[in-house]
Amino acid sequence: MKYSTTITRSVSVTAVALLALAGCATATEEETADVVATTVQESFELSGPITMIVPFGAGGGSDIAGRAIARGIEEATGATVTVENRTGGGGAVGYSFLLGASGKDNYLLASETAMLALPATGQVAFTWEDFTPIMKLGDDFTIMIASPDSPYETCKDVADAAATERVVAATSGGATGLDSIVLTLVEQDQGVKFDKVPVESGDEALALLLGGTVDIAINNPGEILGQLEAGAVKALCVLGSDRYEYPLLADIPTATEQGVNVSFAQFRGWIAAPGISQEAIDYWVEIGRQYAESAGYAKYLEDNVMQANLLLGAEFDAYLAKQAKDLAAVIAAAIE
């Protein structure tokens, strides 16, 4: 099956060169501009139907991101994208599946911080360098929440309580998930310990909180907007550098404002299988560029209250290399 993408830059240069060879070196600026604006459809044949792997459960932030990306790819390519949730091991099952699809340029994965955190544990055989980074969509901060009748009103209240009593926290993604990383940073800053209950997705963490099984949960804004609006949960603080501008979240103070000096963002993006051709990489980066210019991308960021920090290809590689180093010490503390 062939999937097409529009490649403009190389065609434009070639077209101008052909004008010169044809004796048109004296072409007017208008004529040259017309040629430079010319585009063609170049066909690229993938190995098979496109599959997007989501390494966490349905309903959570990774699942929301994976399905949004899949819709964007469908719009750009005209092809159907099958989304598969392959859960387990804090994301390890999904990443390992993609690792096993080496050389298959039709397999993609909705990636996040777990891609960097899992290798830091020493319990998986891969690192981010084993995959093919394509696109970083943006950054996703988290909010600490509790039930409406909880005695906690702030993140500082939670930390103070943990100093003298058992505070149970739901953490999606296991010890290397964003929730656990953020709570570890709070533990380090405040000198306390939480009793962490690992689950596979933010949706499961929310269910435990609503069911009274845990005292607090850490969720991405997009996972809890409905519950916040309905008053089903209470926001304690934003674990980010600034307050949100989104009206429903604008009054939630940051943890730093409350005396808890923690700010950490999870990236959202997508990667391809290892061992694919440069032609395939260029194809997917171009599809990512088209997605970034689409209304669907803007809607995803808005609906999930994310910061748009777009990176493609080599720029995404450089970001991952730095983040992997920064995360190592935090993960070591999280798994102690």
List the defining traits of the structure above.
336 residues; alpha/beta; D-Maltodextrin-Binding Protein, domain 2; 6-stranded mixed β-sheet; 5-stranded mixed β-sheet; 12 helices; 13 strands; 41% helix; globular; disordered N terminus
Topology (SSEs and partners):
Blueprint: E1 2-7, H1 9-21, H2 29-36, E2 40-45, E3 50-54, H3 61-77, E4 81-85, H4 92-99, E5 107-111, H5 114-120, E6 132-140, E7 143-146, H6 155-162, E8 168-172, H7 178-190, E9 195-199, H8 202-210, E10 216-219, H9 221-230, E11 234-238, E12 266-272, H10 278-292, H11 295-303, E13 311-312, H12 314-334
Parallel strand pairs: 3-4, 3-5, 8-9, 8-10
Antiparallel strand pairs: 1-2, 5-12, 6-12, 6-13, 7-10, 7-11
Number of helices: 12
How many E strands?
Answer: 13
Return the CATH topology of the largest domain.
D-Maltodextrin-Binding Protein, domain 2
What value does the Rg take, in angstroms? Answer: 23 Å
CATH superfamily of the largest domain: Bordetella uptake gene, domain 1
The poorly predicted ranges are 1-27, 29-41
Number of domain units: 3
What kind of assembly state do the chains in view correspond to? Answer: single chain
Major β-sheet profile: 6 strands, mixed
- CATH class categorisation of the largest domain: Alpha Beta
β content, as a range? Answer: 15-25%
- Strand order within the widest sheet? 4-3-5-12-6-13
Task: Name the helicity range.
Answer: 40-55%
Distance between the termini: 49 Å
Could you explain how this protein is built, in words?
Helix 7 (178-190) links the parallel strand 8 (168-172) and strand 9 (195-199). Strands 4-3-5-12-6-13 form a six-stranded mixed β-sheet, with helices on both faces. A five-stranded mixed β-sheet has the order 9-8-10-7-11. The chain is 41% helix and 20% strand. It has 336 residues and is an alpha/beta fold. It has three domains: 2-42, no CATH class; 46-140 and 266-334, Bordetella uptake gene, domain 1 (D-Maltodextrin-Binding Protein, domain 2, 3-Layer(aba) Sandwich); 143-258, Periplasmic binding protein-like II (D-Maltodextrin-Binding Protein, domain 2). Helix 3 (61-77) crosses helix 10 (278-292) and helix 7 (178-190) packs across helix 12. It is globular, with a radius of gyration of 23 Å. Mean pLDDT is 85; it is low at 1-27 and 29-41. The chain has helices at 9-21, 29-36, 61-77, 92-99, 114-120, 155-162, 178-190, 202-210, 221-230, 278-292, 295-303, 314-334, and strands spanning 2-7, 40-45, 50-54, 81-85, 107-111, 132-140, 143-146, 168-172, 195-199, 216-219, 234-238, 266-272, 311-312.
